[in-house]
Specification:
The protein has 196 residues and is α+β, with helices and mostly antiparallel strands. It has 4 helices and 10 strands, in the order αββαββββββββαα. Strands 1-2-3-4-5-6-7-8-9-10 form a 10-stranded antiparallel barrel. β6 and β7 form a beta hairpin. The relative contact order is 0.15.
Length: 196
Amino acid sequence: MAAFLAASAGTWLTRRAVHHLDHQDDEAGDSNLTIEPFDASDAVVQRVCESLDVGAGEAAGGARFWWESNLKEASRSEDQAAVLVDVVDAQNPRRGFLLRDKGYIEKQPVVSTYVFAEDGLLTITTRYDTNIGIERCWFVTNDVRIRVSSVQFLNGVSMTTYCTELRCPSGGDLEAIRAEAQSRFPAASQQPSTPG
């Protein structure tokens, strides 16, 4: 999980399609997902572990997540944020528990189980009081991830979601691209810009 979170660090453009199996209309939209991994020494580990009666010494780090508008600047909100703390299975490092400060469906602390398949596909299962959420996530390339999920209530599956996630370049990445372009084409970078 630590390697998966490290590979997921940064901001992703999430293109999402949601299919409701009841009488609601389907939905589609774009948003940004920002992931910031942390190690076991982060102060949030103690808080999340205490909320779920888990010893903080079992934690192996985790990550902060923010879901943000990709159209509005400074749209980060704690209402659209979560913290995950990783507790690895001592017998099998491909399995473990994710302690979450608030659940995606029910806004309360929750414990999920996770397992990585041989091919790297991650499956997270979360059991809430009235439903079960199952999410699968995998990398297509270093800069493309796929996530699919379903929410199942007592009377059956009620919602499925499909997301394609594309890594957004950082400011540093864009600056490096600009510098490389200027080194390759120095004359072009010195030409005066024409009025628009």
